[in-house]
Amino acid sequence: MSGRIAIVDYGMGNLRSVLNAIEAVGGVADLVAEPAALTHYDRLILPGVGAFGQAIDNLRRTGLDRALEERRQAGATLLGICLGMQLMCSDSDEEGLHAGLGWFAAHVRRFPDTPGLPVPHMGWNAVDFARPDRLLAGLESGGDAYFIHGYRVTCGEPADVLATCAYGVEFACMIQRENLYGIQFHPEKSQNYGLTLLRNFVNL
Amino acid sequence: MLKKRLIAVLILREGQVVQSVRFKHTNVIHYDAVHAMEAFNKWAVDEIVMLNVSRSADSRAGFAEAVERVSQHCFVPLAAGGWIGDEDYATRLLRSGADKLVLNTALAERPELVTALSRRYGRQCIVASMDVKRDETGAARIAVDRGQRLLDEDPVAWARRAVALGAGEILFNSVDHDGARRGYDLATLGELCRAVDVPVIAFGGVFGWDHLVQGVEAGASAVAAANIFHYTEQSTRKAKSHLARAGVPVRREGCELPSGRNP
């Protein structure tokens, strides 16, 4: 199914807005809930809003975790957005310690309590690029994207960090290795900035 | 650094975008909310709030459809509210494309609904809308039912209660300032911002871009307006450029144009 993008539907959050954004930049996407159907796609988006524990349980219960692993090993390009990026990491301490998909040697940890910096981190914040990448074509380092998250990713492998953001602490807000991408902010809610990223993904 | 947000509010009555003056809605601005959204997309607004101020609960289905149509063109966060009286309708608005729910009268009449929605969808999804009106003694009091019913409740206590119920954000408006063109109710806004640790959105009364700066100076995390953004070409770009020149950290996009005159 060349050209089409799978948006993985595992019961977590607003998939419609991701679909709307992909269509707005000229892409064609399907919401896919059936693990076997994922094999038809070589570009997949793992979106998600909600709690890490429930999300990883949903992926395992439905068998989508194994289908995604198969796609990863087959060389498909996978993009995790917000919770989807966090699920690609080793583990999260959101309400107990949960193992993730383990694709990145990275941990998901709550923001430290800091006076004047309420958690969740919500709003437009600057994305500073750590290195160039095809996904960042046409974007300048320091541009603003829309974040909403209470937990942040710390990478064990510095080379995986594609971009950082600062909110009391500096954290990885984009990660990449081989055919895997993770974005902590919401490109589908980051207007032209996010639409440019998604257009780049569509054209990868 | 986290930026101060600029929010455009679409006030809908029976599906049409209307002007609001002291919570009275007589003039239609746009027959179709999508037209307003398309303008704000070009003008680099940071966030959209859609409020259903129709007089009857029968408007709920039509409003959800309007949210759905707007969301197809909205690539910034979208909050929606008005007549949210049960979980099913709240869920319907989210499925229609809203990212956040705006709750007002429910804070008084169905506080358990606020808490249930916060648990189900997360605190970040719940915006407590607080309308404040001065009573005959001049004391600020909470108004519900689209500003029509005054409660004997102090705004600061009400804001703290809203946060305790599960709100992750506060949308503050003043019935007296709404459409009155003299800026936000800065005294009450400042008190609220000092009283709670969740973001406060200032709303109601903006008639010049300096009013937005005043809202930020009073402590607001976001500044909102409705009427003025519809009636001025390139409005949100001009507003943002004005904020940037006043030293307010704002999202870079939309600031590249030189600002026009203060209306």
The total tally of domains of chain B equals: 1
Task: Please report which band the strand proportion of chain B falls in: under 5%, 5-15%, 15-25%, 25-35%, 35-45% or over 45%.
Answer: 15-25%
CATH homologous superfamily placement of chain A: Class I glutamine amidotransferase (GATase) domain
Q: What is the subunit organization of this protein? A: heterodimer
Count helical runs of chain A: 5
CATH fold-level topology of chain B: TIM Barrel
Q: Give the name of the CATH architecture of chain A.
A: 3-Layer(aba) Sandwich
Major sheet characteristics of chain B: 8 strands, parallel, barrel
CATH level-1 class of chain A: Alpha Beta
Low-pLDDT regions of chain B: 257-263
Order of helices and strands of chain B: EEEHEHEHEHHEEEHEHEHEHH
- Physical arrangement of strands within the biggest beta sheet of chain A: 2-1-3-4-13-12-11-8-9
Cross-sheet strand order for the largest sheet of chain B: 1-4-5-6-7-10-11-12
CATH architectural category of chain B:
Alpha-Beta Barrel
Based on CA inertia axes, which overall geometry of chain B fits? globular
Distance between the termini of chain A: 15 Å
Instruction: Output the radius of gyration of chain A.
Output: 16 Å
Order of helices and strands of chain A: EHEEHHEHEEEEEEEEEH
Look at the structure and give the mean pLDDT of chain A.
Answer: 95
Content of β-strand of chain A: 35-45%
Radius of gyration of chain B: 17 Å
